[in-house]
Amino acid sequence: MVRFNFFQGTITMISDFMTGQNGEGEGCYKLISVEDGAGNSVNFVVSPTTYFVDHAMVAVGDRITGYYDGNAPVPLIYPPQYRALVMVKESSSQNVKVDYFNSQLESSDGMLRLNISPYTQMVLTNGQSFSKYPGNRNLIVIYDFTTMSIPAQTTPYRIIVWC
Q1: What is the mean pLDDT of residues 114-135?
Q2: Origin, by domain of life (predicted)?
Q3: Which of 54, 60, 138, 152 has the greatest CB tally within 10 Å of its CB?
Q4: pTM for the full model?
């Protein structure tokens, strides 16, 4: 099971990331360096399968949140280098939570509970409609407001099911 960890900060550099020995993946992978403003930095390896919320194009200076698998092995280098699973370009008009949601639609960290409405759009990462119950799955949840309760509750306007 994927354990979603994240790192949030400002992009300081984007460069090509070389894979393979004969250049077959040349230009398909990127290395995105991110600093959080407190002296911490990471490098995200972005592949063609990395999901960018809203298919956002990112550039140096953008604030982003990169999600990676906290259970995956990583090379022992500094700054840490993670394989990006999901990237979110920050926006003041929406909040995003990437996590595993149980059968009661509560996130694995217990901080967010979802209330599905008839207006909640549910799609797969390829944009196609998702018609089953979204519980017990990895979800990318896009919402605006939450309650002040614990866990906070929200009615998301879009749920992307990450199969």
Answers
A1: 96
A2: Bacteria
A3: 138
A4: 0.93
If DSSP codes are grouped into helix, strand and coil, which group holds residue 111? coil
Q: At 53, phi and psi to the nearest 5?
A: -60, 135
Q: What is the pLDDT of residues 15-38, one digit of tens each?
A: 999 887 776 777 899 999 999 999
Tokens in use for 30? 């990127």
Task: Give residues with Cβ within 8 angstroms of 97, minimum separation 6.
Answer: 107, 112, 139, 140, 141, 143
Q: What are the structure tokens assigned to 55, written together?
A: 């298919």
Distance CA 30, CA 15 (A): 6
In this prediction, residues 60-66 reach a mean pLDDT of 98
* Of 106, 92, 35, residue with least CA distance to 66: 35
Question: Are residues 157 and 121 in contact, defined by beta-carbon separation less than 8 angstroms?
Answer: yes
Looking at every residue in the chain, the average pLDDT score rounds to 95
Strands (E), 58-105: 63-69, 81-83, 86-89, 95-101
Residues sharing a CB contact under 8 Å with residue 19, sequence separation 6 or more, in sequence order: 25, 28, 29
How far apart are the C-alpha atoms of 132 and 4, rounded to whole Å?
Answer: 23
